[in-house]
Amino acid sequence: MSKILVIAEHDGQKLNQATARCVSCARQVPGAEITIAVLAADPAAVASQAAALAGVAKVITVAAPHNAHPLAAVLAPQIVELARDYTHVFGASTAFGKDLMPRVAALLGVPQISDAMSVEGAYKFKRPTYAGNALVTLEAPADRKLVATVRTASFEAAGGGGSAAISAVTVSAAVPSHTRFVSVSAASSDRPDLASAPKVVSGGRALASKENFELIFKLAEVMGAAVGASRAAVDAGYAPNELQVGQTGKIIAPELYVAIGISGAIQHLTGIKDAKTIVAINKDGEAPIFEVADLGLVGDLFQIVPELQKSLAK
Amino acid sequence: MRKILVGVKRVVDYNVRVRVKPDGSGVITDGVKMSVNPFDEIALEEALRIRERGEASEVVAVSIGPDDAQQQLRTALAMGADRAILVKTDQVIEPLTAAQALLAIVRKENADLVIVGKQAIDDDAAQTAPMLAALWDRPQATFCSKVEIKGGTATIVREVDAGLETIEIDLPAVISADLRLNEPRYVKLPDIMKAKKKPLDVIELSSLGISAEPGLKPVLTEPPKPRSKGIMVKDVAELVDALKKKGLV
Ligand SMILES: Cc1cc2nc3c(=O)[nH]c(=O)nc-3n(C[C@H](O)[C@H](O)[C@H](O)COP(=O)(O)OP(=O)(O)OC[C@H]3O[C@@H](n4cnc5c(N)ncnc54)[C@H](O)[C@@H]3O)c2cc1C
Fold first, then answer.
1. What is residue A8's three-state secondary structure?
2. Which of A233, A257, A285, B81 could share a disulfide with B76, CB 3.0–4.6 Å?
3. B236–A242 CB contact, under 8 Å
4. Do residues A151 and A127 make contact, with C-beta atoms less than 8 angstroms apart?
5. Is the Cβ pair B221, A134 closer than 8 Å?
6. Interchain contact, A133 vs B18, CB within 8 Å
7. How many angstroms is it from A231 CA to the middle of ligand 1?
8. Res A138: pLDDT
9. Within chain A, which residue ranges are assigned CATH 3.40.50.620?
């Protein structure tokens, strides 16, 4: 049997959808019995959301003031203690999971499988390397704990309807005070979340200014879409960092992705290759983005985007 | 005064379109351009700036890899690192092994700060920094876009999914560099000449008592499935029509 501990990602109140995607991956592991661990200052709300996920057998909670903010150095020793009774420990391959899980793996003295994209066996997973240009199937030894992060774009979120038992546990692991949370910029909640939105409109360097980038926001608004950006657009300050899509930004799998004034560098493409439909708008008919686009339109975005917005607003 | 260690990995250059070997045993690296992992260049740049501000006295570049990784270490020396150390191994090593090797060097050198890239663009694992911090039992600050050192602590801005997070850490610590931490300097010809005279020590990984044996067995390497070719539309009306047919707008 595979006893899988999934580490919940949350903001203190809401369980992140990445955890539900992680659960879907865990459910595909042969003989999976899934427990979600919620470490928080007050885990009650998040724990009940976790307990409702389909396929979850148990939710355990660790309530402590030092768990109020997600600091890897504080969480990792507690998770190592919780992991004693499990064969697998999973976290989402988000900024949270990427920061935390390797620390857990190293404390357990085991290697980690990063960005698991498909389950090939209880100890065998496929993962992308080289910005998604080479997929590697890795096999971990079955006699050691397996720590993995899950590539969320590869798995649908687990549904609801579950009713797992919730139990509070205490851990005795000493937590360090050498790492202290100061603040986090509040995510703007009035727009759909880039990581989970079914539609995404992204802008690139071609937007040429922060003011012009408003065109992307306006189009996204009439489409009910989240906004994304290329690295070039973020570097230039047209869009904030959390909107970057790609190898080193967010990896997403929306139903619809609209790339506007983005050339289609491999580092960008790796972030969108699981999108169901890709639309590219670019004035250069030779741009590599057209090689992956399902629908391509060659032309000047400064004409096309307002026209598109008007036509969709009708 | 403070000593900073910087990790420098030799990787396939980011402009190369990587191809998988037909037998599924890995990717083709023969005759392919190799470079310093771009994130490690950013890590090194940050270390150099810290030294130039007088907050550190020495920057040591460390690579774990084959003999040829000396080329990347020479690049690091040309950028401004004071010394370099190659921990030599011909095997492809896992991040956990890299972390163990870096820890051995940290202890040997008595380093106060380690800066590495947030990920290497070959295996894209993003593990080395947290693993090293765990083994060293010190703070980690991953995905950094700003580093400010004051005495024995550092205030760090990190790029996280929600936006920007600020944390405070006590030194010694491990930092991993994100894209927007800085823009690495260009290397000038005289610097390359100077770099040839800077010390570069080579030690065997095995001499540190560390095994290069991977814990994970690569079973198969394969190319991704290509996306099917799409169609071009001629104007906005056609685009909207096509999207409507797919039920997307
Ligand atoms: C280590 C590393 C990591 C990276 N990670 C990422 C990542 O995570 N995400 C990412 O996106 N990039 C990443 N990059 C950068 C990547 O290589 C590209 O540089 C970047 O994606 C380019 O952004 P862009 O397409 O917006 O700009 P450009 O490549 O400059 O493309 C602009 C496009 O706009 C078109 N255009 C110009 N004007 C108009 C107009 N008026 N109307 C219509 N089209 C127009 C042009 O034809 C061109 O195709 C990374 C690079 C490195 C080295």
1. coil
2. B81
3. no
4. yes
5. yes
6. yes
7. 7
8. 98
9. 2-168
Q: What percent of chain A has pLDDT over 90?
A: 97
CB-nearest partner of B167 from A124, A129, A182: A182
Distance (angstroms) between ligand 1 centre and the Cα of A261 equals 8
Mean pLDDT across A175-196:
89
Chain A residues within 8 A of B118 when measuring between CB atoms:
248
User: How many CB contacts within 8 angstroms connect chain A with chain B?
Assistant: 246
Establish if B239 belongs to a structural domain.
no
pLDDT band at A15 (very low <50, low <70, confident <90, very high): very high
Cα-to-centroid distance, A238 and ligand 1 (Å): 13
Atom 15, ligand 1: which residue's CA is nearest? A231
Q: Considering its fold, how many domains does chain B have in total?
A: 1
**Residue of the nearest CA to atom 31 in ligand 1?**
A263
Q: How far, in Å, CA of A204 to CA of A272, rounded?
A: 14
Say yes or no: CB of residue A266 within 6 Å of ligand 1.
no
Tell whether B243 is covered by a domain.
Answer: no
Q: What is the pLDDT of residue A187?
A: 64
The amino acid that residue B217 corresponds to is K
Spacing, Cα A43 to ligand 1 middle (Å): 41
Q: Which amino acid is at B76?
A: A
In a domain, B26, yes or no: yes
Distance from CA of A147 to the nearest CA of B (A): 11
Q: Are strands B140-150 and B173-177 parallel, antiparallel or unpaired?
A: parallel
Q: Report cis status (omega within 30 of 0) of the bond before B172.
A: yes
Indicate whether B78 belongs to any domain.
Answer: yes
User: 3-state DSSP call for residue A19?
Assistant: helix
Domain enclosing residue B35, as ranges: 3-223
pLDDT in tens, B108-121: 999 999 999 999 99
Confidence at B101, pLDDT banded by 50, 70, 90: very high
- Band (pLDDT 50/70/90 cuts) for residue A189 is low
Mutation test residue for ligand 1: of B179, B181, B182, the one with most atoms within 8 Å of CB: B179
Question: A241 near B163, Cβ under 8 Å?
Answer: yes
- A190 pLDDT band (50/70/90 cuts)? confident
Mean residue pLDDT of chain B comes to: 97
Q: Could you report the predicted ipTM of this complex, rounded to two decimals?
A: 0.97
Run of H or E residues at B58:
strand B58-65
Nearest CA to ligand 1 atom 23: A232
SS3 B3: strand
CATH for A199-313? 3.40.50.1220
pLDDT (0 to 100) of residue A223: 97
Mean pLDDT of A103-110: 98
Give the residue ranges of DSSP H helices in A155-284: 210-223, 231-235, 266-269
Q: Cite the residue boundaries of each domain of chain A with CATH code 3.40.50.1220.
A: 199-313
**Which ligand 1 atom is the nearest neighbour of the CA of A247?**
8
Q: How far is CA A253 from CA A185, A269, A295, B2, in A?
A: 25, 11, 17, 45
- Is residue B1 scored above 80 in pLDDT? no
Taking residues A213-217, report their average pLDDT: 98
What is the third-level CATH fold of A2-168? Rossmann fold (3.40.50)
